[in-house]
TrEMBL record:
Gene3D superfamilies: P-loop containing nucleotide triphosphate hydrolases, Probable tRNA modification gtpase trme, domain 1, tRNA modification GTPase MnmE domain 2. It is found in: Mitochondrion. Residues 251-415 form the TrmE-type G domain. Keywords: GTP-binding, Hydrolase, Mitochondrion, Nucleotide-binding, Transit peptide, tRNA processing. This is 5-taurinomethyluridine-[tRNA] synthase subunit GTPB3, mitochondrial. GTPase component of the GTPBP3-MTO1 complex that catalyzes the 5-taurinomethyluridine (taum(5)U) modification at the 34th wobble position (U34) of mitochondrial tRNAs (mt-tRNAs), which plays a role in mt-tRNA decoding and mitochondrial translation. Taum(5)U formation on mammalian mt-tRNA requires the presence of both GTPBP3-mediated GTPase activity and MTO1 catalytic activity. GO terms for molecular function: GTP binding; GTPase activity; tRNA 5-taurinomethyluridine synthase activity. It comes from Phascolarctos cinereus (Koala).
Length: 493
């Protein structure tokens, strides 16, 4: 090992104390060059109590020795207090904890080190500078630590995605879903399916090769058929998840819609706890769609405030209404808002008939929460006057009366749309997963069609199905997919 470390740290002309000591340990044996060692700040930027800088690659050990001016590496995986110094000038830089993770028992599978230093910008940049001055070390690119973990078989592709999602998770439910994926449940499920498919394919191929010799057991083909049918059913059942995992990952679309002046912009401001949209007594104030991402009871919601739905001669407002209709068509949940004192008006009635009434032409399978706003303007103890209404909630954006109940109902709707990430089989969290599972199912369907006509063709379909599962877990890795996934990672991860 010392030979390899020395190769990375010491060029032939290098004669620092570190290199001399490494050469001594390498006992003069020839030194070979290996893969670059990367380093980066892995904790957040800016002033903080502790900053974590890590390295991965064969020169991690020499980097620790160089920065600690020490003859021996710390005990593996034991936090050890050391004075850090510049390996060139020997100037002290900081006192910090060093963690040494010899490969393969590390996050990336390579030799890794962590320097826990004081989180001041000058300390961090001095330590990064010192690492950069050691030959064989270079700054890491975004996601490069994780990429090495994947390439060294430490994480499957779905686990990598789970890790990325965990870092980006902003709500409790997202965190739970990401953690489950990081723990490998989705990958294991796919691997299990892949193994079933491999067994079925092996039997089919054996049948093709040996059936004429009569060496093959009875009923092999029937067994393959049953297995493939069962697998296809399992995959189809898994695809019937109403995209809950994807919604939870990216946030559910909650569209606030209603007639002009119902208080839609007041509501998005109230739910966001900041003035994201302009509120005014003038009907037709909002034209562009205004978005705000919020956490409601642990679920991520992307709120959209839209233009009031009404006929207007104003061309700009007409465009706003068109955009509002577009948004409504994409909504997972519609927060339908009416002015409680204006229910009998033509615009309120029209909105109730076209958007709110269940089963109406524009409401296939969409969830609607009807809220009557401006309850503070109703005479004390009076119910709103107007047409018979479906179930609804009363709210005042002005006094915030009724807000708790609106939030509770919204959370219930979000839970239905996003699902509970902790129960049931692991969900598909990306369009990519769905695409490969769907393609796998299609190949299994084609197997059933070609099986009676051409066994070789049927076997080819099973191979195609297995390739799709391989793409899902990254075993059959397409570089372009990997690039897209790792691009989402930050430097230091
Ligand atoms: N009394 C009372 N007034 C409210 C309430 N909510 C909103 N308003 C007022 O109603 C008016 C319209 O509010 P907005 O939030 O701009 O309504 P909007 O639905 O976004 O209006 P448009 O964008 O023009 O369609 C403003 O003057 C608000 O202050 C409420 O709960 N009670
Ligand atoms: K308004
Ligand atoms: Mg508005």
């Amino acid at each position: 090992m010392w030979r390899l470390l020395g190769a990375l740290v010491c060029g032939p002309a290098q004669n620092t104390r570190l290199c001399t000591s490494l050469r001594k340990r390498c006992s003069g044996r020839p030194i070979s060059r290996g893969r670059a060692t990367i380093f980066a700040l892995s904790s957040g930027q800016g002033k903080c109590g502790v900053a974590v800088i890590r390295t991965s690659g064969p020169a991690s050990g020499p980097a620790v020795l160089g920065l600690t001016a020490s003859q021996a590496l710390p005990q593996p995986r034991v936090a050890t207090l050391r004075l850090l110094q510049d390996p060139g000038s020997t100037e002290p830089l900081d006192r910090g904890l060093i963690l040494w993770f010899p490969g393969p028992h590390s996050f990336t599978g390579e030799d890794c080190a962590e320097f826990h230093v004081h989180g001041g910008p000058a300390v961090v940049s001095a330590v990064l500078g010192a690492l950069g001055s050691i030959p064989g070390l270079r700054p890491a690119e975004a996601g490069e630590f994780t990429k090495r973990a994947f390439q060294n078989g430490k994480l499957s592709l779905t686990e990598v995605e789970g890790l990325g999602d965990l870092i980006h998770a902003e709500t409790e439910a997202q965190r739970r879903q990401a953690l489950r994926q990081l723990q490998g449940e989705l990958g294991q499920l796919c691997q299990g399916w892949g193994e079933t498919l491999t067994t079925a394919l092996a039997h089919l191929e054996a049948y093709i090769d040996f059936s004429e010799d009569d060496n093959i057991e009875e009923g092999v083909l029937e067994w393959v058929d049953t297995t493939v049918r069962g697998l296809r059913e399992a995959l189809l059942a898994h695809l019937q998840d109403a995209r809950r995992g994807q919604r939870l990952r990216s946030g559910a679309q909650v569209v606030i819609a209603g007639p002009a002046n119902a208080g839609k912009s007041s509501l998005i401001n109230l739910l966001s706890r900041r003035p994201v949209a302009i509120v005014s007594p003038e009907p037709g104030t909002t034209r562009d769609v205004v978005e705000s991402a919020v956490d409601i009871g642990g679920f991520p919601a992307l709120l959209s405030d839209t233009a009031g739905l009404r006929d207007s001669p104003d061309l700009v407002e007409q465009e706003g209404v068109r955009r509002a209709q577009d948004r409504l068509a994409q909504a997972d949940i519609v927060l339908a808002l009416l002015d409680a004192t204006d229910l009998a008006s033509a615009s309120s009635r029209h909105f109730l008939e076209t958007v709110v009434t269940p089963g109406g032409p524009s409401t296939p399978g969409r969830r609607i929460l009807l809220v009557l706003n401006k309850a503070d303007l109703l005479p004390e103890g009076m119910q709103p006057r107007g047409p018979a209404l479906p179930p609804h909630l009363l709210l005042s954006c002005k006094t915030e009366a009724g807000l708790e109940a609106v939030l509770a109902s919204l959370k219930r709707e979000l839970a239905a749309v996003c699902g509970d990430p902790t129960v049931g089989p692991p969900v598909l969290t990306r369009a990519r997963h769905r695409h490969h599972l769907q393609s796998c199912c299609e190949a299994l369907g084609r197997y059933e069609q070609s099986r009676a006509r051409d066994l070789a063709l049927a076997a080819e379909e099973l191979r195609a199905a297995r390739r799709q599962l391989g793409h899902l877990t990254g075993q059959a890795g397409a570089e372009d997919i990997l690039e897209v996934i790792f691009r989402d990672f930050c430097i230091g991860k």
